Amino acid sequence: MAAEMADERGLLMLLAVAAVAIGTVTAVTRPGLWRLGQDGTPAAGSGVRYGGSYRAGRWVPATSRRQDWSGFQGRGPGAAK
Amino acid sequence: MAPASLGGRRDPDLLLWPLASLALPLLPLLVLLLSALEGPRRLVMVVPEGQRVLSAPFALQDGWLGSPRLALTAEIPPNSSVALDVALLDASGGTVLDLTKDGWRASGVWAEGGESGTWQEDDAGLALALRPGRSGRFQLAVEVQDLLDQAGQPLPSPVLVRGSVRNHSVDAPLLLFTAVLSLAVVQVLLLACYGVSRGRWVQRSQEASAAIRCGAGGPGLVRLGVVARWELPHDDPPLGPPPGPAALELRVSDAQGRPLLQHREMVAVAHRSNDGDHWLSVRHSLHLRPPERGSYRFRVALPEAFRLDGDAWEIEWLELTVEDGRMTAWPVSVLPLAGVVDGRGDGR
Questions:
Q1: Segment B93-103, tens digit of pLDDT
Q2: What is the set of domains in chain B, with CATH numbers?
Q3: Residue of B nearest to A17 (CA)
Q4: What is the ipTM score, two decimals?
Q5: pTM listed for this prediction
Q6: A-chain residues within 8 Å CB-CB of B92?
Q7: Residues 194-233 of B with CB under 8 A from A
Q8: Which in B33, B64, B203, B255 has the greatest CB count within 10 A?
Q9: Percent of chain B clearing pLDDT 90 (strictly above)
């Protein structure tokens, strides 16, 4: 029984080390981050329109750039107070 | 990590290596702190409508130690909107990225239920996280289009655009999640190391004494937990101060009933009260190391009553818990099972 407990403790320690290692390395290296020249465009927040996108390593401008922009997007005072 | 006592002798009941796991959740937080210490490169541009303004050149570094992050915020008047054209230019002036940010800022007054105040919302910033492919110098070209007021009329004022460039930003939410997750695993690990026992027996008595016979001994310590409660026979508040320390008596005998230990020590008695109820309580732990695995009887006794200043506290219950095979993270006083001891608290 003591050996089973020791195995369980070792497994938990290994799990904790693995969680920290994987999470920290992924957060620092960010392997999924968009790279300049990669197909598409980087992720952006709300209200961002790209004027083109990368295809096969080349920036290809969009044919129609401007869109209707209605201006204010605020939800009003209920969400702000 | 070898278990050791304070005197330098090996103590088989001390388990120190799990304590090292407490440092694990700190590692992602340390990375986050180091990343926050990186000073960003500040950019400031005053952009009149219809004019293309270039920022100062800045470096974007490629590599795996964090990643570049560009942030821009347009400071526009209240109740206005803007279309901000932003281009990222490489060292030769060629456009490598081109986007438009539709920004707005709104404010007003709210009134509800007799209360009132002002509110403000805006979405006039953007942030880009990307890798440049290879390190180099870049510039931003910013142009303001359609700076309009609430009625859709053009506003003449130039727009102040503030930017920041960091080259070693990290995924902060993932680091925080990693810290929380690893802390949860570490807590389970510490519980598995210090909170579990091979065997556990509980005896609750309506008197001021309780006894348990059980099989104990082997690796680890035997922990005796004693919890007791005294109450007044009426609901009136106590008249006098709580009593001083009480005598706790412990007797341990072996399988043949031969006494192995008679121990007596003074334990603190605490006065508790909650929602009009008053009681006295004792909560105490003792540790033993049986010489070998076998059948042992553990009996503890506390005073049946306390009588002082007109208060007659009577025992309500006493609970004895025996846990076998407990490991500890720090040295504890261990009662010897060799003879008769009459001590006061230390129990060595």
A1: 999 999 999 99
A2: 22-107+121-176 (2.60.120.380), 197-336 (2.60.120)
A3: B24
A4: 0.76
A5: 0.74
A6: none
A7: 196, 198, 219
A8: B203
A9: 65
